[in-house]
Amino acid sequence: MEQKGRESWGTRFGFIMAAAGSAIGLGNIWRFPYLTGMNGGGAFIVIYLGCVLFVGLSIMTAELAIGRRTQLAAVGAYKAYNKGWSFAGVLGVLSGFFIMGFYPVVGGWSLAYIFKSFTGLLSNTGAIGDVFGAFIGDPVQPLIWMFLYMIINVVIVARGVHAGIELAGKILMPLLFGLLIIIILKGLTLPGASAGLSFLFVPDWSVVKGSTFLAALGQAFFSLSLGMGCMITYGSYLNKEEKLPNNALIVVSMDTLAAILAGVALFPPLFAFGMEPTAGPGLVFVVAPQIFAEMGGFGVLFSVLFFLALMIAALTSSVSLLEVVVAYLMDEKKIDRKKATYGTAVVMLVLCTLSSLSLGAMSGVTVFGVGAFDFFDILTDKIFLAIGGMLLAIFAGWFLKKEDLKDELTNGGTLSFGLFEVWYNLIKYVIPVLIGIVAAVGIVSIEQTSLMIFGILVIVVLAIFSKKL
């Protein structure tokens, strides 16, 4: 099934940095800390680690195996085995496309806050929340930063796998971890910082509820860029000598480490300055600047470093999302990489513009009861990704030959994978049920019934016309 002349990663290190970059994104630096704060700290982290180990690692291994075996991106990989399953790949491409309808907006915010840190953002702690609200509601400023952020994405993806995505990963991933460590070292020197560490690493099981497990499983799943074809696409660029289980473990470990480091970067100073850990989604753009403002003279520097880290995390993920769509156009429609990249980016910029304006100038314009930003977010996060991940597990466990998977994960029998039977049974029997629960709960929780129905109808239509996709 291997495609002649297909692009490939230049080195194992380059692949791991790029794949880790795909997994490490806003979900780690923004979503994980605030979910940890809202779900009791240490107990949530223990449950999250279990979900990552048993669910996230298993799904990532399956995606890499399917991608490498077919040497095709998401749609082609499914189609290579069963044309009726093409819709699952198209669902992944749509997920990446729609996520890129709002993700660069937030990426642009992080880029803007790097510069805002230099221009008085921290001068009035009481007004930081008002500054953020005024900024995202402005009809022009966020669009400028979003456009600049998107240009960086386009340049990287247009340069290809080796000279673009891999090179960016090699530079940006070590830089991200370095920045987080610098911020952590400063935060741990603050009086009272130990209370933040206790909150993070001493489990309080009395606060655990059923929703805690669902939040942990959902975060583990979405944090790893699973269910949207990213890892299938990245796996398709791997050579046949790579050890897939080992690589998957390294990528998952790096993703988890980044999330934990983000928590350690935020919570010790948050407790040191007597702030509430349950700040929710505003933790990064409102509470974090307040923390840095309290640091005095060095606050500006650490604010710049933090938002640079956030921008890098967002960038490496959005690059992979753009690549999913570009790879689909290259594989299935035979479009040149640069043309595919530029054309996709133009459409994404239109969607991003609508998303950004929906938070301000066009806040009164709704689609199924929500603005464009929330429409893309809910459609993907609550519906497409969860169902996409469940379909991947069902496909791998029930429609692929067990011997083919074993052959791919042991490199034709030349490597040992002692946990294959455990992994296979998890993929076949356990994980589809767990993800199905998360998907069901997420879909039912959507308040906009019409949006929920729309999302499900899209998947049904894709399934019906799958053989024509």
**CATH class categorisation:** Mainly Alpha
Number of domains: 1
CATH topology: Amino acid/polyamine transporter I
Count the E strands.
0
Which CATH architecture would you pick?
Up-down Bundle
Number of helices: 20
Measured between the Cα atoms of the first and last residue, the distance is 20 Å
Mean pLDDT, all residues: 91
Task: Please characterize this protein's 3D structure.
- The chain has a single domain (12-468), classed as Amino acid/polyamine transporter I (Up-down Bundle).
- Helix content is 73%, strand content 0%.
- It contains 20 helices and no strands.
- It has helices at 12-23, 26-38, 42-70, 74-81, 86-99, 103-116, 128-137, 141-158, 161-187, 194-201, 210-223, 230-235, 244-272, 287-294, 299-333, 337-357, 372-399, 402-409, 420-444, 449-464.
- Helix 3 (42-70) crosses helix 4 (74-81), helix 8 (141-158) packs across helix 9 and helix 8 runs antiparallel to helix 16 (337-357).
- The radius of gyration is 21 Å and the shape is globular.
- It starts with 11 loop residues before the first helix and ends in a 5-residue tail after the last helix.
List the helices and strands and how they pair.
Layout (H helix, E strand, L loop, with lengths): L11 H12 L2 H13 L3 H29 L3 H8 L4 H14 L3 H14 L11 H10 L3 H18 L2 H27 L6 H8 L8 H14 L6 H6 L8 H29 L14 H8 L4 H35 L3 H21 L14 H28 L2 H8 L10 H25 L4 H16 L5
Helix pairs in contact: 1-9, 1-13, 1-15, 2-11, 2-13, 2-15, 3-4, 3-11, 3-13, 3-17, 3-19, 4-5, 5-15, 5-17, 5-20, 6-8, 6-15, 8-9, 8-15, 8-16, 9-13, 9-15, 10-13, 11-19, 14-15, 15-16, 16-17, 17-19, 17-20
